[in-house]
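Late entry, evening session. Most of the bench is empty. Finally got around to the prediction I had been postponing all week. Sequence below, unchanged from the version circulated by S.P.
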Amino acid sequence: MSVEKVGIYYEKQRVKPWLVRWYGENNARGKPRRYSKSFKRKRDAFAFQSDKQAELNSGAQRDDIKITLEELCTKFLESRKHSLRKASLDRYELAISQLKEYFGSTCQIRRIRRQDAEMFIATREIIHPDHKRKSKDLSAGARNRYLSCSNTIFRTAVDWEYIKKNPFAGIPKTKSVPKAWHFITPEEFKTVLLTTSELRVQALYGTMYGTGLRYGEAINLLWNGRDIDFERGRINIEKRPAAQSIPPFLVKDYEKRSIPMPQWLQDILLKLHSEAPEGCPFAFVSPQRLPRLIKKWQKLLKSSNSNKWENHMVANNVLRNFRAACRRIGIKVDTSLTLHCLRKSYAQNLADNGTPISTLKSLMGHSDIQTTSKFYLQSTDANEQRACQALDRIMEVSETDTGMTLDPSKHKKSEKLNLPNSRSNKRLH
């Protein structure tokens, strides 16, 4: 049999007499490896032979590569370490540690089947010790992240021709219910500003509520004439490379954007800028915090761990102070109350005032319009009241046009509605 040809043979003494044979690459002794697969029925053997021959002719791997889960994961992380951010790498490392624990580091990836993959996803549990003590269940979002990471790793194995089929492909994601969050009304926000004594903190809250920036985006704004552009009345979000004294800033999804500032926010920022201390490039970082920030960044830089820097590391205790400010004005909620509520409330305010969802998507910096509609547009009491009022107006117009009234007090007891086309007015013969 030719090394390039996939042969088919019949051996009647076998339970499965039809054999398909082909050669792989040369082994350590210089001889080609031999492979075979047996079939009970002739047509199955010929079908497999035809598919295998076409596969080899297209340049596919001739050998079944026996690669372990440990080898695959090591190569995957090595190939992605320069293209993924720290948060993404952390998610992959967590998923990989769980894969190794479940399947074993020495497990050959070609032995992992669809059923095994589904059982792996289904059996994931909370591993954080604090959450374990609270007897919390693994959220749908966390389960879906395990699925997404595992799917990407094994899809890469298919691309690298280690395996032919991704066992995680097609596993449906767990349906997640968006976590309820507190919508901060304009009245509540004004009260928060009035009870916040420090102008720098007022400006930070105002920037998030007035432009919808993420906390990591807002806290990294610089007084450089570009980030906060008073001349054009806009805030510009774009990637900033690292320097010796200033850490980098990475934009989520690498999408830069420009957001207009309302006039009230410009007034606050102009006042803050006029009082900004010299030598502090950050708009919302205090002079006391700046030396500690620089020290932390340079420590990572010297230890070659600069990729571990994250946007939120610029400041700390901001969430604690925001929640304290909300408590002071009497905001007590059972739902989520974080700095991100300022950003979400910005989206809700624009949606309530008729901003097209495509415009809102652009302002928020979302990559998918479903994110804008699913997670940021929740019904409010004011919207529901306006919907009811609209129905009242519709019915008022209808009464004017028809002369009919829905007010029971204006109907006579003996009065009946005369409906000429009604079946009740027709005599039955």
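Two things to note before I forget:
The beta strands are 7-10, 18-26, 32-39, 228-229, 234-237, 257-260.
The domain at 186-376 is CATH 1.10.443.10 (hpI Integrase; Chain A).
Will write this up properly tomorrow.
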